[in-house]
Amino acid sequence: MGSSRSDSQSSSLISSLFSIIGLLAGAAVVADGSREPKVPCYFIFGDSLFDPGNNNNLNTTMKANYPPYGVDFPSGVATGRYSNGRTTADIIGELLGFESFIPPFASAPNNSEILVGVNYASGSAGLLLETGKFMRMHVMGARKVGVTGLNLIGCTPAAIAMYGDKDLLCVDSMNKLVVPFNERLKAIIDKLNVRFTDAKFVYLDSVTAGGIAGQAFPIKSTACCKVSLATGMCIPNVEPCKTRRAHAFWDAFHPSEAASRLIAPFYLRALKKIL
Questions:
Q1: What is d(CA 117, CA 137) in angstroms, rounded to the nearest whole number?
Q2: How many Å apart are CA 129 and CA 173, to the nearest integer?
Q3: What is the rounded (10 degree) CA torsion for 147, 90, 251, 245?
Q4: Alpha-carbon gap, residue 51 to 110, rounded angstroms
Q5: At 184, phi and psi to the nearest 5?
Q6: Which of 55, 75, 89, 160 is disulfide-compatible with 123, CB 3.0–4.6 A?
Q7: What mean pLDDT do residues 89-114 have?
C-alpha cells in the first residue's frame, strides 16, 4: 500500500524538511566512573530536529519560539526547540555527562563554552550529500563523528496528511526514497573511515531508532499539539494534548520529548563504538 503521489513530490519534501546530520567530536574518553563528561567536547549540526533556537531570528517561516513549544522544557519557555521539551541532541548530551545544554551558535557562546561544544543546528537547514563538510570538520579537529540517516519520513503526521489517507499509517512511496539515500550515506561514511585513519565515523540508524520509538507509543500518527494545516507546526498559544508521553510526535514533523528519550540511547549505543 502507498500514496499515489509522485516520487518527485516526495523527494522535494525530503530535501526541504527532513535531511539532517549530527556530528559528535571528541579527542578522548574519560574513564568510566569519572564525573566528567565521557568526551571533552560535543558539536552538533543539523536541522530542526536538533535546533536549540538558532532559527529564532532568521528569515524563515518555520519557527518554534512560541507556546506551546517548550511546555515541558526545564524553564517551561519556548526556546526555539521543535519539541515540547528536550531534543534528541539534548538528551545525548545528558547521557554523555554534560551538566548544561550545549549552547546554540546564535547565543554567541564565550571562549570557555566553545571549548565544550556548540550546537549549530537550525530549522529549515538542508544537507548536501557530499564529503566537503566532513573534511572541513576533520581539519578543525573532529575525530569522532556520528552521522544520522533519514528516518521513515513517510510515517510522519505531515506525510500522512499530505500524501496518504486515513487508512494508512505510513506513505510507502516516500519511505522507499529513504533507502537509497541512507545507502549512499553509509557508503560515504565507509570511505571516510578509509581515508581518515586518525578519525572514526559511525552511521546512526534513524530508521531502526524511529521504529523502536514508534512501537513504544499508542499514538503514532497524530500530533500532540493542534497543528496548522498549512505548515504542520503547532498553532500558537493553543493548549496541547495532556497525554504527551503517549505521543510519538509533538507536531506534524518532530518527535515528542518522550520519543527522543528512546531515540537518544539507541544512537549513543552506536556512538560508543567509536568513543
A1: 13
A2: 21
A3: 120
A4: 19
A5: -65, -40
A6: 55
A7: 94
Contact in structure between 67 and 82 (CB atoms under 8 Å): no
Q: How far apart are CA 6 and CA 9, in angstroms?
A: 5
Chain segment 20-51, per-residue pLDDT in tens: 344 455 443 333 445 678 888 999 988 999 99
What gap in Å lies between CA 119 and CA 107, rounded to an integer? 10
d(CA 223, CA 246): 11
pLDDT band at 204; cut points 50, 70, 90: very high
Q: How many CB atoms lie under 10 A from the CB of residue 219?
A: 16
Residue found by looking up cell 512501537 in the block? 215
Chain length of the chain: 275
Could you tell me if 91 and 261 are in contact, meaning their C-beta atoms sit under 8 angstroms apart?
Answer: yes
Q: Which residue has the cell 536549540?
A: 52
> How far is Cα 211 from Cα 208, in angstroms, rounded to an integer?
5
Does residue 202 sit in helix, strand or coil?
strand
With contact defined as beta carbons under 8 Å apart, do 127 and 185 qualify? no
**AA identity, residue 251:** D
With cell 548536501, the residue in question is 128
Report yes or no: 212 and 262 within 8 Å, Cβ to Cβ: yes
pTM: 0.88
